[in-house]
Amino acid sequence: MTSLPLWFDPARVFIGGTWRAPLGGDTLAVVDPSTGAEIARIARGTQADIAAAVDAAEAALSGAWGAMTAAERGRILFRLGDLVLQNADALATLEAMDVGKPLRQAQNDVMALARYCEFYGGAADKLTGDTIPFQQGFTVYTLREPHGVTGHIVPWNYPMQIIGRSIGAALATGNACVLKPAEEACLTALAFADLAAQAGLPSGALNVVPGLGAEAGAALTAEPRVRHLSFTGSVATGKRVQVAAADNIVPVTLELGGKSPQLVFADADLDKALPFLVNAGIQNAGQTCSAGSRILVHRDIHDDLADRLSDAISALKIAPAMDNADVGPLVSARQKAIVDGFLAMATPDQILAQAPLPGGLPKGGNYIAPTLLGHLTPDHPLAQDEIFGPVQVLIPFDDEDDAIRIANGTRYGLVASVWSADGGRQMRLAKRLQAGQVFLNNYGAAGGVELPFGGVGHSGHGREKGFEALYAFTTLKTVAAHHG
Ligand code: NAD
């Protein structure tokens, strides 16, 4: 059995460049989702730790970190990206054992984290203001300045990717960060903080306080000295975060859930589409905000696609994370209970296919059989609600208008894809789909660190990733000089 490759004590918080026990003295269990066994303890940070982290961040801004040039910040991010790559095996193992994702997926997440460090390292000194033509006798220009202390609340499904995109952009623009990782997934956040210190990031520029959402998370959102909040997680918590942000009048970026549609037309190349259609639903055991959980198919090819999808899903292999199969366990017993509850709503005729769970899976693991559902109307809760497990629904449509009506007919709008050989149709639908990202004859563009990402409707607002994120992590100052 693999042991956790820990080179730091995970039961500590990382504040002001040093590791220490949480002030409340309590710890939380780290449970391996593949087996149900406790494999470590993490700190249960509380309001007092968050306040200390904000103190440290403020000190960093008025100290060495605040004095650095953009090029120096970029250089540190490059070094951090290198360290992530040098520690790739350890980081991937930590993530796979902590959240249950197949090792291959954890390795992809490490590469994405390194790419975020590289991308934002390179972008740090490329963000510029404008000069604005104005009245005679004036010179007017804008400055892009950091908010100051930024708060980052991260979920458990893609910790490294979400930390990379949010902390990477915030550090590149000169903010000092307080990160509250999800209680189910703190190990790589802590490892990242240690690597950041090794890369030369000044004390206090990045502080990590693990803890419960209702304690450390709520304390971070309530802290008036935090001047920007970046939240990724559920709609219910996102609403609370937005209310807390309103109390302090701070901007907030919300990356919430989705029920993203994949539209398959009769002229689509089904051989090419099939692996994408399936992977978009089962990647990370379906615990992906941008999961392609609704497959909408033209009625003429419904039965053909249903057969192909059923064959592919029935052939999926499920195993513990470190065995590196197609699908690992869900992150927690709680998440498994949620997904089981959804599956219990399906009648037998609505279950088109289900991958068999192999015998011999560890009893305490949170395994769910990947499932394809059909024969349900677009307004059925199984076709409307985010399940966050390896469950997809197949829904027929009659024409483009019908496809758009169904695709846009949920409260979400995160991503969408169109599979069709007709270029005109691709362009029409890309405009009509309500989503933050639209993929034409692909899905997800392999993660696309460079591509702005975010939702509309209940999927949230604001954009992270790509150059766009740098605008969100800065505030614009206009300077008007009158010189006659
Ligand atoms: P969650 O909202 O329960 O938790 C997310 C984070 O918020 C955790 O760090 C948690 O500790 C913290 N939190 C919980 N209560 C809080 C509170 N009262 N105040 C402040 N922070 C609090 O979500 P989850 O179950 O961990 O994640 C699953 C959800 O996240 C899904 O709905 C999924 O779609 C969404 N998600 C979205 C994206 C995206 O980029 N759009 C990415 C990943 C996950």
List keywords for this structure.
seven-stranded mixed beta sheet
Provide an overview of this structure.
This protein is of the alpha/beta class and 484 residues long. It folds into two domains: 13-256 and 462-478, 3-Layer(aba) Sandwich (Aldehyde Dehydrogenase, Chain A, domain 1), CATH 3.40.605; 261-448, Aldehyde Dehydrogenase, Chain A, domain 2, CATH 3.40.309. It is 38% helix and 20% strand. It has helices at residues 47-61, 64-67, 70-86, 88-99, 103-123, 159-172, 187-198, 213-222, 235-248, 270-282, 302-314, 333-343, 381-384, 400-407, 423-432, 468-472, and strands at residues 13-15, 18-20, 27-31, 38-43, 131-132, 138-146, 149-153, 176-180, 206-208, 226-232, 252-255, 261-264, 294-298, 351-354, 371-373, 391-397, 415-419, 437-440, 460-461, 474-482. Strands 14-15-16-13-12-17-18 form a seven-stranded mixed beta sheet, sandwiched between helices. Strand 5 and strand 6 form a beta hairpin. It starts with 12 loop residues before the first strand and ends with a strand. The protein binds nicotinamide-adenine-dinucleotide. Residues 153-157, 180, 182-183, 213-214, 217-218, 221, 232-234, 237, 240-241, 255-257, 289, 386, 388, 460 line the site of nicotinamide-adenine-dinucleotide.
